[in-house]
Amino acid sequence: MAKEIKTRSSVWRNFIHLIKTIKLPFVLLIIVFLLNLGRAAIQLLIPEKTGSISTIVLESGGDAVHLAVSICLTLFALALVEFVGSLVATYITNIAKAQMNRDFQKVASRKAFLLKAADIEAKDPKEFISRITTDTEFVSEFIIDLLVNEIPRLYFIISTIVRVASMGNGSLVLGFILVVPVIIVGSLWSGRVTYKAQNKLQAIIAQLTAKLAEKVNNIETIKAYNKSEDEMEAGGAAIDEMKKAQKKTTWAAAFNTLISNILFIVPTLIIMLIGAIQLLNKTITTQEFITYFGLGATYQTYIAAHLTLWVLAKRAQGATQRISEVLLLEEDRGGGGKAENPGTIEFRNVSFSYGDSEILSDVSFVVKPGSKTAIVGKSGSGKSTILNLIEQFYRPEKGSILLDGTDVTTLETSSYRNLFAYLPQNAPGFSGTVREMLAYGAKKEHTDEEYRDILQKIGLLDSIGQLGGLDYEVGTNAAKLSGGQRQRLAVARMLLQDAKIVLADEATSALDTDGARRISELIDEYAADKTRIIVAHDLSTITNADQIIVLDHGKIADCGTHQELEIRCDLYRSFLNAGKED
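Above: the chain's sequence. Below: its structure in token form.
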């Protein structure tokens, strides 16, 4: 129990922290608050005006008729004002809610891009979609209801009790008091049911979103292996799980409806019965009975509204818990030092694991400024991991990575990564135009002539021109381009970036032999005075490297020039004889 209380307390602390991350639309909230407060004041007047009609004796004289008509017109005017106020309040509330949703989603989206790669992978980034959309809406709904509705509700409830108490009949006050525990018990029970059902549904929706996104991204592989039917069946099973969760949520909604009806009928019976008894006993007048009953009808509606507030609170509690799992993760900002010079890069006794699988073990080497370092090894030997560690996508478990003798974790991440141009294997693409793909990550603007010139150098100008030129829309994930075209565009982007250190992860693996050598020569030409660290696919492109690091099962088997390794390293010779890496 103590642990549960501590967890709830932590959730609400996170809730307050979450609110602080955005700018609340106070002007809109104040307007809606005042409108709702005015509506509550009008709803206090209407029963009294209605009750006053019972005191008028309609005789042949015109005074009574005139008074009755005047009261009716007043009631109509009050009802009309309350109705219009309700419409305006609802409209502004929706605007405020949309603004809050947008701000929450901006915060959550920004946070997702600032997280460490390891944390993103651990949480499954595709599930962030659900966190950023649905969960943020739950938080907004609760905040809106709490800030603009709760005080007007309390104002009406307290004023009503004071008004009934002024009638001098304790039994009438007792009737209003008896309504409260009935509604509170129902609200607590309903909120608990909603919390459990909604939490489970949101977890399943997030998982299903992640699975579907993964399958859609790999649709070609699925079709190539003729697994469409199996994947549809697996997707159907996941959807069935969501349906089960939705049924429970629907049951919770039906339960809430039942409770709401009970919370209307039972309090109404309590109020009517007590009022009728007092009227029959002639301890209250007809006017007081009408006023009492009219106030009671709205009173129990306002009390029942706390059911909504409680349900929203429980949904916000669950949503906050899920969102805070992301928002409270440490951001990938690094230290406070600025990285300005490329300098010497040193791995000093670095070890790293993915889960229980050790990838690198006690790896040490030095890369001098302006040199070309190649990394070769079998698949899974840790080549790409070294590049990921250099760019601080991951942190070493043991050892350290130094830049000119300074531990890179003490450097501000953004300025540190500005030193690099990173070219991944099978470079992905984003939706947009060819021009936008080339401009992505550039530190300065380039002219269309410069873009065409670089496309000419990488051998893409003609094919891109046939597609539609720089304005050609490449489609989602650049799916309208071939793998080779995407890779060449990534090379072009890297060349345009003009970074001080080049990291290339099997950058030419998607190209044919002639294309790979041409691109490798272009990279060497462009980066002749830059530090180059290249994970090699085609060993013929790295024979001019200043040093070649040979990895074997996460350890350095040897390090030297091409000529040195060809003489003394059996593993390196096996790569040369094979013509490529295994």
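Residues 1-7 have pLDDT under 50 and may be disordered.
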